Amino acid sequence: MDPERLRALLQAVQAGDTSIADALRDLRELPFRTLEFARVDTHRHLRTGFPEVVLGQGKTPEQIAAILAELASAGSTAMATRVTPAAAELVLAAVPAARHLPVPRAIVLGPTPAPDRGRGAIAVVSAGTADIPVAEEAALTAELAGNRVERLFDVGVAGIHRLLASRAVVEQAEVVIVVAGMEGALPSVVAGLFARPVIAVPTSVGYGASLGGIAALLSMLNSCAAGIAVVNIDNGFGAGQMAAMLNRKRDS
């Protein structure tokens, strides 16, 4: 349940506009809602400030659609990640109000919140164009958590002047997400140049000795620059969520 919806319900009871019995009926399924194949955590938004997110990978389109609908009915904007184009077509047929974003491979049901829950902007930086899908997953996640996001793509170490030409984007951010494949060097450069916390995201972009992103992951974990935290390979969602938590205002 969305915190604002719960607050409105309690105010209605206090004002006498809603009976206690009606309020209890609305609250009865607050912790989770049981489907045939899932227990949808509708309480997570109240506990953590963020609604549950559906991992589309490994689920059927019918399951994705049903879980999204349950989450949205609780008053939150819902998102599914790692959704293939074929699955997205079937999900949108079942939930016409949803929208598919092909680059981050996500489906969103509900409006994007106003960007007023963070102290400042979150910068999402990608080393190369091939890293953009993971970067966009991070950016979308942060935006759906109510943050202002600035994107800076294709500024990797092979042409570091591209990053320096747009350094103001990073300098004005509260938190920086840096997404890189290949050797994964860009987070170290950003952390060494800017006094901002860096969330490093290794991607599986690369070939040969990149080992599906393991080389980038190990490079980021072994960085000599201070202020870097590393998430799993291709985990744009995890980076966006962490950045949103770091950037969140105390009263949000």
Overview in brief:
This protein is an alpha/beta fold. It has helices spanning 3-15, 20-27, 44-48, 61-73, 85-94, 132-144, 161-164, 167-171, 186-193, 214-221, 236-247, and strands spanning 33-34, 39-40, 54-55, 78-81, 99-101, 106-109, 121-126, 148-152, 173-180, 198-202, 228-230. The protein has two domains: 3-109, no CATH class; 121-247, Rossmann fold.
Please give a structural write-up:
There is one protein chain. With 252 residues, the chain is of the alpha/beta class. The chain has two domains: 3-109, no CATH class; 121-247, Rossmann fold (3-Layer(aba) Sandwich). Helix content is 39%, strand content 17%. It has helices at 3-15, 20-27, 44-48, 61-73, 85-94, 132-144, 161-164, 167-171, 186-193, 214-221, 236-247, and strands at residues 33-34, 39-40, 54-55, 78-81, 99-101, 106-109, 121-126, 148-152, 173-180, 198-202, 228-230. The strands form three sheets. The chain has a five-stranded parallel beta sheet, sandwiched between helices. It has a four-stranded mixed beta sheet with strand order 3-4-6-5, covered by helices on one side. A two-stranded antiparallel sheet has the order 1-2. Helix 4 (61-73) links the parallel strand 3 and strand 4 (78-81). Helix 4 (61-73) packs across helix 5 and helix 6 runs parallel beside helix 11 (236-247). The protein starts with a helix and ends in a 5-residue tail after the last helix. The model has no long low-confidence stretch (mean pLDDT 87).
Set out the fold topology:
Elements lengths: L2 H13 L4 H8 L5 E2 L4 E2 L3 H5 L5 E2 L5 H13 L4 E4 L3 H10 L4 E3 L4 E4 L11 E6 L5 H13 L3 E5 L8 H4 L2 H5 L1 E8 L5 H8 L4 E5 L11 H8 L6 E3 L5 H12 L5
Parallel strand pairs: 3-4, 7-8, 7-9, 9-10, 10-11
Antiparallel strand pairs: 1-2, 4-6, 5-6
Helix pairs in contact: 4-5, 6-11
